[in-house]
Write a sequence for this structure.
């Protein structure tokens, strides 16, 4: 994978319509996507050769995706949609804080699925722009489409 500009990593939010359109969350200066492949240990003692060598056996556990971002607070319809999902306000029933998101990782591909808004935070310095940050966690299967 060749070097890519960080600004090309995009977090997009769905508009909630039947044929959903995705728009970029604006103002983000830092974005992170984490894919977790959890495992669990199912190692058991070898009963046929007690005291023999014991090899650890791992089984695939839960796979999840987490997304976080922070940046400068900018208004607009995408941020309005994000707030409606996070706080359960608006015309769409979003009381469960789950919405559809896409994360585009340049030269790798697109991760898409339903995500739960785990947290939001707003801040601001005396002399500076208001900022916001958020964290999302996958709520069900996330699809991955490789970049062409």
């Amino acid at each position: 994978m060749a070097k890519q500009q960080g600004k090309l990593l995009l977090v997009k939010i769905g508009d909630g319509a039947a044929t959903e359109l995705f728009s970029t969350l604006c103002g983000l200066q830092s974005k992170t996507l984490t894919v977790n492949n959890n495992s669990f240990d199912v190692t058991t003692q070898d009963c046929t050769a007690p005291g023999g060598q014991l090899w650890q056996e791992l089984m695939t556990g839960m796979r999840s995706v987490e997304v976080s971002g922070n940046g400068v607070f900018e208004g607009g319809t995408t941020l309005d949609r994000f707030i409606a999902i996070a706080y359960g306000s608006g015309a769409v029933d979003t009381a469960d804080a789950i919405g559809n998101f896409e994360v585009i990782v340049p030269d790798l591909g697109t991760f898409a699925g339903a995500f739960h808004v785990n947290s939001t935070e707003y801040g601001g310095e005396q002399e500076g722009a208001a900022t916001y940050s958020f964290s999302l966690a996958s709520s069900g299967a996330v699809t991955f489409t490789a970049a062409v």
